[in-house]
Amino acid sequence: MPLASQGHSNQEGDPRLAEKETFDVHSSPILGQLRQSTGPKTEQGKAASSQNSLKHGLTAKTALLPGEDPAEYQSLIHGMTADLAPGNTIESSLTKELIDLQWRLLRIPRLEAILLEAEMPDFKALNNISLHAARMKRQYSATLKEFLQLQAVRKKQQESAMQDAIVLRRADVILNRPSNFAQFGFVFTVDEVDRRICRDDAQAAAKKAFSNAAWAKRATYDLKPLDRKAK
Question: Which of 53, 69, 135, 230 could form a disulfide with 13 if both were Cys (CB 3.0 to 4.6 A apart)?
Fold first, then answer.
C-alpha cells in the first residue's frame, strides 16, 4: 500500500532480518504442520506454487495460508472493518493492511508453539519469528496512526460541510423553497441534513431544560438559609 509503505517500510526493522529474511517451508516443519491441504493439483498450479512458494507464514504475499480457517479470517475482516469504519478508498486500503497485519500477528503463537514442541527446537527460527513480530507490531502502530490521522481530517471536513448544509436547509425552509445540495457541491441528502437538524435541536432543547432545572434547584437551596435567618 503506497501510503502505508512510505512511512513504515522494512527500513525500521532489525538489520539481522536481511541475513535471514525467511526460512523455506521444505526445510522447516512449521508450515508442514499448519498446512493440511494437499496443495495445487494442476501442473500450472504446481509451477506457480513452486515459483511463488510460501517461505513462512509471516512474509507470505497472501494473508490466508492453506489450512487456516477462512471463516475466522472473514470474521476478523468484518469486525475490524466495523470498528475502524473506513470512509473512503484510502482508509479502506489502510484498513485492509491493518487486518492482514493483525492476522499474521495472531499466527505467531502457533508458529512458536510448533517450534518449541520439536525434540530439538530451532532457536534461530524462533529468533527470526521474534524479529518479524517486532517489525510487524511497529508497522501496525504506524499504519493505525496514519489511518486515524486521515480519518480525523476527513471527519473534520465532513462536519464543516454539514454545518454549511444545515444553514442552507434552514434558509430553504424559512423561504419555502426546495433544497438542492448537489448544486453547491454537497454529498448529503435532504433527509440526512434534516435528521441532523432534528438531533441538534433536540440536544439544544435538552441542555436548555437541564440548565433551567439546575438553576431553579440551586436558587431554592440558596433561599433556605435566608429563610432560617429571617425566623
Answer: 135
How many other CB atoms are there within 10 angstroms of residue 193's CB atom? Answer: 20
Supply 202's cell numbers: 433536540
Please name the residue that has the C-alpha cell 508453539.
113
Q: Which three cell numbers stand for residue 9?
A: 517500510
- Residue 10 and residue 4: Cα distance in Å, rounded? 11
Q: Which residues contact 59 (CB under 8 A, 6 or more apart)?
A: 21, 22, 132
Q: Which residues contact 69 (CB under 8 A, 6 or more apart)?
A: none
Give the predicted TM-score (pTM) of the model.
0.65
Cell of 134: 517486532
How far apart (Å, rounded) are the C-alpha atoms in residues 202 and 188?
20
Distance CA 66, CA 57 (A): 10
Residue-wise pLDDT tens digits, 28-58: 555 555 554 444 555 454 434 333 334 456 6
**CA distances in angstroms from 143 to 83, 96, 98, 100, listed in the order given:** 15, 11, 7, 12
